[in-house]
Specification:
Elements lengths: L3 H10 L5 E3 L16 E2 L5 E4 L4 H8 L4 E2 L5 E5 H7 L6 H7 L4 E5 L20 E5 L1
Parallel strand pairs: 1-3, 2-4, 3-5, 5-6, 6-7
Helix pairs in contact: 2-3
Protein name: FBD domain-containing protein
Organism: Adineta steineri
């Protein structure tokens, strides 16, 4: 598993990282409440498909990560719904409000997703959903 310190080292070694794709379904082992915030100053694309919910929280929680106002996020709808506690969780809302585009992959029926119900959580983002 990738721990919070790994992502801190990534941003230190590659401060201009623009695209980040993560594929890891193993949960993190540590709770990183007292760690430094990881800052991605130049990130424009973040792909979090087929990842454990811990990594979604790692990138969306404002106590762990600071995202710029330029991010295009690709993620599974159901995972996003879980981590954001049905689009109501305050610790993930700050980073979600910075997204400019949200690409949701729906595992269930695409018609069950009402994008109007979640727009408040992503006020700047153009939202797209597909199965």
């Amino acid at each position: 598993p990738f721990e919070h310190e790994f992502f801190l080292r990534i941003t230190q070694a590659f401060p201009n990282v623009k695209i980040l794709r993560l594929d890891n379904e193993q949960p993190q082992k540590k709770n990183h409440q007292d760690s430094s915030i990881t800052r991605y100053f130049h990130l424009t694309e973040l792909h979090l498909l087929e990842v454990h919910d811990d990594y979604i929280e790692e990138f969306l929680s404002d106590s762990k990560t600071c995202l710029p106002n330029t991010v295009d996020l690709t993620i599974e709808y159901e995972a996003m719904q879980r981590v954001t506690e049905n689009f109501t969780r305050s610790t993930t809302q700050i980073n979600c409000s910075k997204l400019i585009r949200l690409n949701l992959y729906v595992l269930g029926d695409e018609n069950d997703v009402n994008l109007d119900d979640i727009k408040h959580y992503f006020p700047r983002a153009r939202i797209f959903a597909k199965s």
